[in-house]
């Protein structure tokens, strides 16, 4: 089965218990991850989570089936969550499909796969498109309008009343990342003591009080310094990252979001196009025109194809090495900036 980011929930509901493998792919890794989290939260008994990396599945394809058929130490329920890049899960999924069809995997634990830089046209996705026991969903980079609507839905779910302008402000502050936006909404609800039983109206003042991201202490100056190859600015931005305790994973997510935006824009840009008009026509926020335009000149084609999975790998490394995340991020940003500085 196939779905999009807008109808995956309905497709999963229609499939019911028949669907045992969920393959969510596309350029919006944040949206795919958030969707997977919602589906897991709706399981009658999610139980223990088993995390598997793409590298693990690539080196040992049989592990996916082994985990789907195994039991936990105490016999509890479990589910499998794999984060992969590209086709890393292909062989493991092919093995799962073969064994399920042979009746050797019956009532296996549900499997959720977030596949960064894969698409619904990938070999992995094609394994599942015609199956009734699997769901493929494609997630495209979100726009401001859709994330603003998502923010309002998040707020409604926790008893917050937001007007359109505040919802848009939160969407922008989260750099269109629904996971960061959810974090901001949750903090705002906690600050105002809001709940479904006692709903509260939020305003910009309350949002500022919880320390929401702002231009001077947000992620984007650091992201722009790296992707624009501004080697003279980068040391100062790295110092600021430490001084204001920017979350390394948040910075990585902002990097992924900008890279995904560039990957969408780059194929549309034609030689001789007026950059300002091109960015305006494609919905780029006017305050970001200079940075996005410059980065489009430095990152295109094969360079973006290499950058996107590299950032996904960085994200996974930061999650797995929280104690050294800041150092790992600083090193990767420096390498990216040096590469960008040499290319125009």
UniProtKB/TrEMBL annotation:
Q: Which superkingdom is the protein from?
A: Bacteria
EC number(s) per entry? 2.7.7.7
Q: Which residues form a coiled coil?
A: none
Q: Which InterPro entries match?
A: DNA_pol3_clamp-load_cplx_C, DNA_polIII_delta, P-loop_NTPase
Q: Give UniProt keywords alphabetically.
A: DNA replication, DNA-directed DNA polymerase, Nucleotidyltransferase, Transferase
Mind telling me which Gene3D superfamilies this protein's record contains? 1.20.272.10
Catalytic reaction list: DNA(n) + a 2'-deoxyribonucleoside 5'-triphosphate = DNA(n+1) + diphosphate
Q: Which family does it belong to?
A: Belongs to the DNA polymerase HolA subunit family.
- Name this protein carries in UniProt: DNA-directed DNA polymerase
Naturally occurring in which organism (per UniProt): Aurantiacibacter sediminis
């Amino acid at each position: 089965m196939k779905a999009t980011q807008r109808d995956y929930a309905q497709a999963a509901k229609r499939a019911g218990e028949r669907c045992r493998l969920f393959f969510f792919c596309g350029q919006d890794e944040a949206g795919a991850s958030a969707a997977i989290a919602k589906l897991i939260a709706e399981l009658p008994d999610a139980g223990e989570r088993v995390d598997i990396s793409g590298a693990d599945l690539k080196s040992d394809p049989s592990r996916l089936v082994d985990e789907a058929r195994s039991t936990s130490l105490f016999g509890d329920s479990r589910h499998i969550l794999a984060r992969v890049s590209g086709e890393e899960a292909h062989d493991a999924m092919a093995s799962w499909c073969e064994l399920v069809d042979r009746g050797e995997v019956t009532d296996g634990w549900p499997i959720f796969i977030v596949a960064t830089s894969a698409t619904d046209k990938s070999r992995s996705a094609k394994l599942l498109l015609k199956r009734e026991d699997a769901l493929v969903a494609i997630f495209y980079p979100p726009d401001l309008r859709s994330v603003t609507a998502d923010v309002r839905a998040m707020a409604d779910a926790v008893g917050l009343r937001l007007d359109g302008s505040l919802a848009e402000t939160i969407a922008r502050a989260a750099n269109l990342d629904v996971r960061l936006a959810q974090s901001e909404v949750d903090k705002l609800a906690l600050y105002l003591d809001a709940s479904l039983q006692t709903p509260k109206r939020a305003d910009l003042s309350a949002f500022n009080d919880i320390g929401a991201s702002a231009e001077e202490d947000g992620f984007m100056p650091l992201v722009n310094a790296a992707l624009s190859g501004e080697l003279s600015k980068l040391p100062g931005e790295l110092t600021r990252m430490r001084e204001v305790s920017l979350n390394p994973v948040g910075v990585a997510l902002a990097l992924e979001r900008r890279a995904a935006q560039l990957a969408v824009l780059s194929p549309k840009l034609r030689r001789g196009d007026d950059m300002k008009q091109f960015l305006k026509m494609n919905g780029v926020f006017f305050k970001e025109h200079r940075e996005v335009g410059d980065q489009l000149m430095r990152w295109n084609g094969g360079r973006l194809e290499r950058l996107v999975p590299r950032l996904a790998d960085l994200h996974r490394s930061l999650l797995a090495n929280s104690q050294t995340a800041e150092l790992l991020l600083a090193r990767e940003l420096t390498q990216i900036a040096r590469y960008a500085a040499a290319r125009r």
